[in-house]
Write a structure and sequence with these properties.
The chain is of the alpha+beta class. It is built from ten helices and 15 strands. The protein has an eight-stranded antiparallel β-sheet. A three-stranded antiparallel β-sheet has the order 3-5-4. It has a two-stranded antiparallel sheet with strand order 8-9.
C-alpha cells in the first residue's frame, strides 16, 4: 500500500499490547522490526515486517525520529517556536503557512463542518476554563458568565479563515488560539507511514498514544488485530477485537480524564455548543478511516456528540464507528455497543 498525504484519542495500552501478541510465530523468512519511544506527551510504537532482511533498522529509526521532529516543529502547542505557536501569537494579520499545516487545517475544517461544529481546534479557552490537568478538589465549577466569556473566543468557522494557493491562515480575534492535539497525532502517524513506505516497507503498524494505522499484514501474515478496551478501568477487559488492514483507527473515551464535584461527574470532552463537559451516556467511540488523522478527529467529534446524535451523522457520512454506551440495565457488563453499517461491513470483509 502506497501512502500519500490525506487531502480530506484514544485507545489504551491494553489494546496495543494485544496487537503485539501477534508478533509471535513470525514468517520464518522475515524479520520483525520494532521501535518505541516518547513523543507529543505520550508514547509511540512502530512494528514493521522486513521481508528481505535488507532494511537497515537505523535508517527506519532515523526516519521515524525525523518525521516526529518535523511534525512537532509545525504543530506542537508546547513548543513556543513551532509554526502553530507562532501563528497563535500573530494577532489578526494574514499569516503564510506551510502546505502541511494547511492540509491539516483543511481536514479540520471539513470535519468541523460535518460534525455540527463539535470538532473545533479553537476549544482551548473552554478546556482551560474547566481546568483539566490543574484542577483540585477545591476548584470551583465555572460560572455561566465565565463560560460565556470563554465561548466568545471559540468558533473555528467563525474565527479562522484558511486560504489555499497561496496557503494562509488568519484569525478575526487576536485572542483566538489553535490547538491541534485532537488531530496532530493522527497526522504524525500518517507521515510516519509515508516514511516507512518510502523505505520499502509495506507491512507495518504505527501507533501514537493509542491512535494508529496499519498497512498490509502483521508478522504472522494475517490482518493486524487491535483490541477495543471496555471503558472501565477496573475491569481491564477488551470489548471487541478488530482485524485491520490498510486503515487508521482511533478510540476516544471519557473514562480516564474527568473530575467529580458535589456528586456530579465532569468529563474532559467539551460540548462546543454548550461550553460544558458532555453529559450523555456514551463512554467511548472507535473510528476506522483511510487515515489516522481523520480517525483521530472524528473520534473526538463523535464522542462529544454521543451515540444518539452521532450515529445518524456516522450513517449519513458513511463512517465506520463503534460506540460503547454506559447501560446500567446490563448488570454484568454495564455497557451496550452500537456499530455503524460501515463498521460492520469492514469487519465482515476483514473476517472473510
Amino acid at each position: 500500500m502506497m501512502f500519500t498525504l490525506p487531502q480530506a484519542s484514544k485507545m489504551s495500552r491494553l489494546a496495543i499490547l494485544m496487537a503485539c501478541l501477534f508478533l509471535m510465530g513470525c514468517w520464518s523468512q522475515s524479520e520483525t522490526l520494532e521501535f518505541r519511544g516518547e513523543t507529543m506527551g505520550t508514547t509511540f510504537s512502530v512494528v514493521a515486517v522486513d521481508h528481505t532482511g535488507d532494511i537497515d533498522p537505523q535508517r527506519v529509526q532515523d526516519g521515524i525520529d525525523a518525521t516526529l521532529a518535523h511534525v512537532n516543529s509545525a504543530m506542537s502547542n508546547w513548543d513556543p517556536d513551532s509554526e502553530i505557536s507562532r501563528f497563535n501569537s500573530s494577532g489578526t494579520q494574514v499569516v503564510a503557512i506551510t502546505p502541511e499545516l494547511a492540509d491539516v487545517m483543511d481536514v479540520a475544517n471539513q470535519i468541523h463542518a460535518a460534525s455540527d461544529g463539535q470538532f473545533d481546534v479553537t476549544l482551548g479557552p473552554l478546556i482551560d476554563l474547566w481546568g483539566f490537568g490543574e484542577r483540585t478538589a477545591q476548584s470551583a465549577v465555572p460560572s455561566e458568565a465565565e463560560i460565556a466569556t470563554a465561548k466568545a473566543a471559540v468558533g473555528q468557522s467563525r474565527l479562522l479563515t484558511l486560504s489555499r494557493d497561496p496557503d494562509t491562515l488568519q484569525k478575526s480575534d487576536a485572542d483566538v488560539s489553535v490547538y491541534l492535539a485532537a488531530i496532530a497525532k493522527g497526522h504524525a502517524i500518517d507521515r510516519i507511514a509515508i516514511a516507512l513506505s518510502d523505505l520499502g516497507l509495506s507491512d507495518f503498524m504505527v501507533e501514537i498514544g493509542g491512535d494508529l494505522i496499519t498497512s498490509g499484514v502483521n508478522p504472522r501474515g494475517t490482518a493486524w488485530r487491535i483490541g477495543i478496551e471496555r471503558p472501565d478501568l477496573s475491569s481491564q477487559r477488551v470489548e471487541d477485537v478488530v482485524p485491520l488492514t490498510d486503515l487508521g483507527m482511533a478510540t476516544s473515551g471519557d473514562y480516564r480524564n474527568y473530575f467529580e464535584q458535589d456528586g456530579v461527574r465532569y468529563s474532559h470532552i467539551i460540548d462546543a455548543t454548550t461550553g460544558r463537559p458532555i453529559t450523555h451516556g456514551t463512554a467511548s467511540v472507535t473510528v476506522l478511516a483511510d487515515s489516522a488523522m481523520a480517525a483521530d478527529a472524528w473520534a473526538t467529534a463523535l464522542l462529544a456528540l454521543g451515540s444518539d446524535r452521532g450515529m445518524p451523522l456516522a450513517e449519513k457520512n458513511d463512517l465506520a464507528v463503534f460506540f460503547i454506551d454506559r447501560d446500567p440495565s446490563i448488570l454484568e457488563a454495564g455497557f451496550s455497543t452500537l456499530a455503524s453499517s460501515r463498521f460492520q461491513e469492514i469487519l465482515a470483509s476483514e473476517e472473510e
